[in-house]
Amino acid sequence: MATHLKKRPPVSILLLTAAAVLGGGCSTVVNSHTRKAAMMGNYLAGDFATAQQQISEKLKSTAGTGDELMWRLEAGSALFNCGRYDESVAEFEKAEALIRDYDTRAIISLRDTGAEGAMAVTNLNALPYRGFARDRIMIPVFKALAYLGRGDEEGFQVELRRLRAAQDKVIADNRTYFEAEDKALRKAQAENRIPDDGKTAIRSNEEFARELVKVRQAAQNGYGNYLNPAAIFLSGIGFLRDGDPENALIDFERLHRAMTGNSQVERLYVTLLRQTGREIPPELSKVAPFDFPLDRDVVYLFFANGRSAAFRQVAVWFPVMTAWPVCEYYDAPYRRVTAGDATAEKLADFDGILSQEYDERLAAMIARITISTLIKEGGSYAASYAVYRENELAGLLVFLGSMFYRAAFNTADTRSWEILPKELLLAILPMPATHELGVTAAGPAGTRKALIRFSSRCRSAIVYINAPSAGVFQPHVLEMNSK
C-alpha cells in the first residue's frame, strides 16, 4: 500500500503523543476490554460490591479524560444492579452532561482536531468515547427504572417522556456526526496522500472476514435506525398510564413494524387497536388481545438475560500488524422464562443493536486505522532513515525506539458499555390476587426460581431481573401505586 506522508516535525509528534497519553485515558496503551476483565469477572460472579469499587477507582483515574463517559455508564448500571438507585441516577446525569458537552461543541472544533491529530500518531483511543446510539437511548431507560426503584413515579414518567424524543434525536445527531466525520477523514486522506484502499486490505484479511460474518449475522437481529424496542415499549406504557391510548398506539404500531412476527408485540398492537376503535388488519384478525388492562393492576416482567456483546482486540495484517476491535458474543444463560402463566418473549436484542451500529461505523473505523497505521509506519521509517544517514548506530536506535513506540500504541479501541444485558425478555400479566409471583428460568446451566412478593398497597409493578450469568439471579421489584 504505497503512500506519501506529510512530514511532521519531531516536536509536534512528541507533543501530540504526550497529549494523547494524558488525555486519552488508560485505553490508549492497554485496551479497554482487557482493563475491564477483572471487574466484569466480579460482576458476573455476583460480587457487585467489588465490581462497583473497581469502577469507582477507574472513575478517579479517568475523570476529565476521553474514557470518563464509558466508566460513568458502567457505574450507573452497576449501581442500579446494586439497588443504589439515587447514586445510579446521579452517575447517569453526569454521563448525560458529558454527552451534552460533546454534542454542543462544533463538529470539527479545535479540541476535536487535536484529538484527531493525536489519534493519527497513537490510536483511536485518543478520541473521546462519545457513546454508541444504544448507550444514549439506554440512559433514560435505566434512569426511569431507577426513579421507580426509589419510589418516584413522577420522575419515572418524566424519563419516559424523554424517551419519546430520544430515538429521533439519536438518529439526527448520528447522521450529522457521521457526515462531518466522513468529510474530515477524506480531507486527512487527501492531505497525507493516502489512497482509499484500506477497505480492500482489511476485508481481505481472513480472520477479520470471519469475524465480520458473525457481526452481520448478529446485526440481522437489530431493528434499523438505532431503534431500541425496550425504549419504545416503555414510552407506550407511559402514555397508557397517562390516559393517552392514542399516542400509546403510535408507539406500539412502531414496535409492530420493527418486530413483525413477535406474538407479544402483535397482542399489544391489537389490544390498542381495539381500545382506540381502529380496524384490525386482516393478517392480525386471529391475534387475541390482552384480556386485562395494560395501564393498571398489571405486572411487567423485564428479564435481562446474559451479558452484552463487547469488543475484543485481534491482530489484522494489512500488510503490517494492526490491532483491530471485533465483536465478542456471549451465550445467554437462560432459554425459557415464565412468570406465573405468562411466558417471556424477546423484547430487545442488544447484541443485534450493537452489531448493526458497529457495521455502520466500519467504513470510518477502517479509514481512521488506515491513516493512523500508515502515518506511524511511514514516520518511523522516514525518521530512522534520516538519522541513519548521519549516524548508523543512532539510526538503529531510533528504529528500535520507534518499534517499541508502535507496539505500545498498537491498541484497538474496544471501549463500550459492557454492564448491559445480551437481550431483554418481556412478560405481561395481571397483578396476582395474592401479591406473589413465581418466576422460573431454565437454560443449559439448570433452572432458577424466584418468588416475587409485592407490598399489599402495590397496584402495578415492573419486575426487573438481572441475570448476566448462570450464577446471578437478581430481582428488582419496582412498584407503581398510583394505578
Which descriptors apply to this entry?
16 helices, globular, disordered N terminus, 5-stranded mixed β-sheet, alpha+beta, single chain
| First-residue to last-residue Cα separation | 66 Å
| Classification by helices and strands | alpha+beta
- Mean pLDDT, rounded to whole units? 82
Q: What is the strand tally?
A: 11
Tally the helices: what do you get?
16
Shape: globular
Radius of gyration: 25 Å
Helix percentage: 40-55%
* Beta fraction: 15-25%
Largest sheet: 5 strands, mixed
Order of strands, main sheet, comes to: 6-7-1-10-11
Describe what you observe in this structure:
This protein is α+β, with helices and mostly antiparallel strands. It has a domain at 10-219 and 351-417. Helices cover 54% and strands 15% of the residues. The chain is built from 16 helices and 11 strands. It has helices at 10-23, 32-35, 37-44, 48-62, 68-81, 85-104, 110-121, 133-149, 153-191, 198-203, 206-219, 229-241, 245-258, 263-275, 350-390, 392-408, and strands at residues 298-305, 310-317, 321-328, 336-339, 342-343, 345-349, 423-430, 436-443, 446-453, 460-467, 474-480. The radius of gyration is 25 Å and the shape is globular. The relative contact order is 0.14. Residues 1-24 and 118-122 have low confidence and may be disordered.
